[in-house]
Design a protein that fits this description.
The complex is a heterotrimer.
Chain A: H1 4-23, H2 27-52, H3 56-86
Chain B: H1 7-24, H2 32-55, E1 64-74, E2 77-85, H3 87-110, H4 117-136, H5 140-158, H6 165-196, H7 201-206, H8 213-231, H9 238-242, H10 248-257, H11 260-269, H12 271-275, H13 278-301, H14 305-325, H15 331-358, H16 376-390, H17 396-410, H18 413-442, H19 464-485, H20 489-498, H21 509-532, H22 545-551, H23 556-604, H24 609-632
Antiparallel strand pairs in B: 1-2
Helix pairs in contact in B: 1-2, 1-4, 2-3, 2-4, 3-4, 3-10, 3-15, 3-19, 4-5, 5-6, 6-8, 8-11, 8-13, 10-15, 11-14, 11-15, 13-14, 13-18, 13-22, 14-15, 14-17, 14-18, 15-16, 15-17, 15-19, 15-20, 16-18, 16-19, 17-18, 17-19, 18-21
Chain C: H1 3-8, H2 12-34, H3 38-58, H4 62-87, H5 102-123, H6 140-148, H7 153-174, H8 185-195, H9 232-237, H10 244-262, H11 269-279
Helix pairs in contact in C: 2-3, 3-4
EC number (chain A): 7.1.1.-
Enzyme class (chain A): translocase
Main location (chain A): membrane
Amino acid sequence: MNPVYYLYLAALLFTIGATGVLIRRNAIVVFMCIELMLNACNLAFVVFSRMHGNLDGQIIAFFTMVVAAAEVVVGLAIIVSLFRTRHSASVDDASLMKL
Amino acid sequence: MNAENLIALLIAAPLLGAAVLLVGGRRLDAAGHWIGTILSTTSFVFGVILFADLLGRNADDRTLMQHLYTWVPVAGFQADVTFRLDQLSMTFVLLITGVGSLIHLYSVGYMEHDERRRRFFGYLNLFLAAMLLLVLADNYLLLYVGWEGVGLASYLLIGFWQHKPSAATAAKKAFLVNRVGDMGLSIAIMLMFTTFGTFAFGPVLSHVTDASEGRLTAIGLLLLLAACGKSAQVPLQSWLGDAMEGPTPVSALIHAATMVTAGVYLIVRSGAIFNAAPDAQLVVTVVGAVTLLFGAIVGCAKDDIKKALAGSTMSQIGYMVLAAGLGPIGYVFAIMHLVTHGFFKAGLFLGAGSVMHGMNDEVDMRKFGGLRKYMPVTFITFGLGYLAIIGFPGLSGFFSKDKIIEAAFAKGGTEGWILGTCALVGAAITAFYMTRVMLMTFFGEKRWQPDEHGHEPHPHESPKVMTIPMIVLAIGSVFAGGFFSIGDRFLHWLEPITGHSEGDSPISAGVVTGATMVCLVIGVGIAYLQYGRRPVPAVAPRGSLLTRAARRDLLQDDFNHVVLVRGGEHLTRSLVYVDHTLVDGVVNGTAAGFGGLSGRLRKLQNGYARSYAVSMFGGAALLVAATLLMRAV
Amino acid sequence: MSPQLAAYATSTGEAFQFWVLGTVAVIGALSTVFMKKAVHSALSLAGTMIVLAVFYLANGAYFLGIVQIVVYTGAIMMLFLFVVMLVGVTAADSLQETIKGQRWLAVLCGVGFGVLLLAGIANASLKNFAGTGQANANGNVEGLAALIFTKYVFAFEITGALLITAAVGAMVLTHRERTERPKTQREQSEQRVRDGKHLPPLPAPGVYARHNAVDIAGLLPDGTPSELTVSKTLRDRGQVRDVSAEALGDLKALEQRSEERLERTPVEPAHFKRSEEASK
């Protein structure tokens, strides 16, 4: 088996995650889909690391995880405060920026 | 003091009067009419002084110039306020101020019971000032100022009784019709400027040969259009009859001394241009001939004494324009007829006003009759004016009109015969309708009836202040023509300005005079048979087709209505349609297109974060596709 | 087998592992997207992440594999679940699309993007796999540490600052500053009286009923359930069980059973009829 299949899997997972972001309305699920996309990227980085025989790809994946953690913390806080004010976790309800 | 410096005072006096009377307000009500009369007379006195000064000079040195200031001091566009007093201007100045002052005097009596008399005199003075500016200007631009001033003053005076809708309409009509002519003048001035680089009389008229004949013909025709507007010539004649809505002194002023003479002045003053453009000259003679017959026919059918006189004015001005179109053969006689006409037409109008004054402002001649016993002074002065206008031998009209008919024949060739015949026929018709006016007004049985309130008019002679001007004008009507003609005094006076040539008449002067006399007798005879022998019916008979058409001013208003008003309406309607469908269609279509487009685009901005995310995702997909494509290429 | 070839072609075991776990990962991802309840989505995502951790390990990223399980699946997903519990009162999302054309556009873009991505990968000639054997010679963690503290030290420091900022930001976002004096108990009770709300403690669930579970509404004397006895969260979720009819049904069954036991026959209406006729 060629390790390049890992890349196909990463692309597939990324696409599924992106589509999920677009389809789901629950902000938490949308967030999960974003995490899925990040993880797909991480997988690709790890495979790249293997491909090139050095650890830089893993380092990038590591940083991605850190940033993802920070993003999750802030994002969930936003969702919580949004839910407090609007009593809804639907992203469609936060649509005040239209005419 | 130099004589030149008096020229500005000629204009200043009536202008001052107008300003004082119009600005002064009610406190001048008591003395306003005398202020106006005195200032107009002052102007006349200045005119006489200047006339004496001119007479004391050589015939070649009779042009006085007064430069007041530079009006438009722009390089390449120099317009000066300069006055030019030569023999031609002098003639007009004396006519305007002299007859004008008499009309002022007459108005003192005529307008006695009008509470807006002060304002009336202010307008009269304004009229005189504008007319004097017109004839004294040394360039066409300044002349245009006077020209427009005359238009304004005539508007104010014709519509003086503005509470009457008919008067207001007539004033508007006169103003509008005049605008058409004014436009001709303004375009002519522009053409002149582009052709000669200036519009001062001297340079323009002495460099006429520099320009092409086509250009000159265009300028000449535009000047003729202007003259048609002011002088009520066909096809811009329709305002004159309605202008009778103004007070009678205004009619006298417009018809005798000012306004309608302006067109003749313009043509004679621009004689050099017309001399170099024979086509334009021919059109001028045609317009004159048509108008003289047109006015005469209209005059025959009118029962309104003032409108009959208005038709007569149109006809007589037609004679003058005809003469002016003949070139150097006729210029002098055009002006001479203008002066004599100024006397007798003013007299006739003042007489008509006097009759109306005595008849409770009745104007229908069918309700007059036998008035000679009630108002003898009016009868005599009106009668002398009548004899003068029909060209009774020895009176003013005889000399001036006879000369014009001679000059028309002297044009030579077929044109000469046609024009001369027209002038002869016009003389016959003039004799007919003036005799008709005379007979219906002063002879026969009295035909006036009590009005609906039971007030029967009590015809009475007018006061002295009105009769004295009439007497003075009657004297002018009788003797002016003879005084001018004996020894060709007028010819020699005006010749340095206008030039003169005898032409080659196919028939001798004696034959022409004889033919004129025959025409005169025929015209008077027919009128006597129709109106002197038989009683005049109180209600106008239906009359022939021509009579009915003539009563409607030969359908001039109908013609204007059908051709101009309807045509204009259709034109504007179609333009509006084009504007609405095409122009607005494009504009609105563009707007609607953008509106619809933005309406659709706006839907993209629905505020849903997910929609925006789709756009971003789609964009990312396109970027990937682009990258792959670039790599593939 | 040369090292290069080993890197190039993976072992059969890894291939087997990839196909099995890869299928699980895709199913988990799809479940994340399509599960109605947020909790199910979170659990599916956790499964996918664990699979990915295994893949990291298989690719020689030992440190990342462990971190993936500990940090992602252990911490971040728990944080998700915590928020789901906090927020997810509306238990099930409606998957009905409300924005016109959104779903089709999303699927179209997704498919297009996926196809392009896959085509791109297939197009790139990725034949040469070096393998991580050389890089991991001194241990994976040591290798990463060497890089982090030398080459990537600046980025590393900055991520530290980012994490602190994120923590403070989360606190700021969720913390509500009290701008007025809190109400005393007395004031709160006065307010309740003024608003006409329910004054005494709410009745307990399960009263007058055979069950005393919290999701069963207490019955009023006439046998109808009282909403007040169940907590608002359960009511909103629609998880209240109504047992009022059940009690009556039980009673009926009991009566029937006792009748059968006592061999009583139901009273014959005709019998009464006849006696009435006899008395006549």
